[in-house]
Amino acid sequence: KAGVTQTPRYLIKTRGQQVTLSCSPISGHRSVSWYQQTPGQGLQFLFEYFSETQRNKGNFPGRFSGRQFSNSRSEMNVSTLELGDSALYLCASCDRDNSPLHFGNGTRLTVT
Amino acid sequence: GENVEQHPSTLSVQEGDSAVIKCTYSDSASNYFPWYKQELGKRPQLIIDIRSNVGEKKDQRIAVTLNKTAKHFSLHITETQPEDSAVYFCAAIFPGTYKYIFGTGTRLKVLA
User: Fold this and answer.
1) How many other C-beta atoms can be found within 10 angstroms of the C-beta atom of residue A17?
2) Which chain B positions have a beta carbon within 8 Å of A90's beta carbon?
3) Residue-wise pLDDT tens digits, B78-103
4) pLDDT confidence band for A13 (50 / 70 / 90)
């Protein structure tokens, strides 16, 4: 099976712009989660989707949003980018609750 | 609140020695505890996990122990090798939340 695929791998944006990141989970996995990874804060939970429904959201401002499509692919969007949004954004999928997360390679976002 | 604390933040050991990383969690109802290894520039990868119905699990040089009463779990690596050098993250899932909370990570350096 192919692993979790995230595109693009790298993004450079300027403050005020918006960005959309994409994630394709492992085939058959219906749960997709997003995490923000920064050197000082570790892995911070953004949101989790299952069968197109957001089941939980982390403590991030409303500028961060996401969605999941019927084929389980997911996107996250960040609007009005700030310098502090620079981070590695990781997507992970799993096949059922309380099971291992399988991570993608991430999208490294740099905001200038 | 939902919290996972991880110690130490950095750990240096001589090749061949053992390494121990400890995590504590806040919700006594948590029932699944995975450990991830992240090498520089790569995705986090699951190395071992444990469920609340067992106290210890081993996989070759790696073991995890769980003390539900004290709400802590530990990763043990024996006979460390240079390729064990990486950042290790513990995590716990909080029932009904569909999200994993990660510790802040331990940077392990194995000195040859």
Assistant:
1) 13
2) 43-44
3) 999 999 999 999 999 988 888 899 99
4) very high
B52 near A CB under 8 A: no
Beta carbons of B34 and A50 less than 8 Å apart: no
Judged by a CB distance cut-off of 8 A, whether residue B4 touches chain A is no
Cβ-based contacts under 8 A for chains A and B: 49
A45/B101 Cβ within 8 A: yes
Q: Cβ A100–B34 below 8 Å, yes or no?
A: yes
Could you tell me if residue B98 is left (phi over 0), alpha (psi between -120 and 50 degrees) or otherwise beta?
left
- Residue given tokens 């505890």 in the structure block: B33
The DSSP-derived string for A2-68 is ---EEE-SEEEE-TT--EEEEEEPPTT--EEEEEEEETTTEEEEEEEEETTEEEEE-S--TTEEEEE
Q: pLDDT, tens digit, for every residue of A32-58?
A: 999 999 987 789 999 999 999 999 999
- Identify whether the C-beta of residue B104 lies closer than 8 Å to the C-beta of residue B49: no
Residue A39 preceded by cis peptide, ω within 30: no
What one-character DSSP code corresponds to residue A84?
G
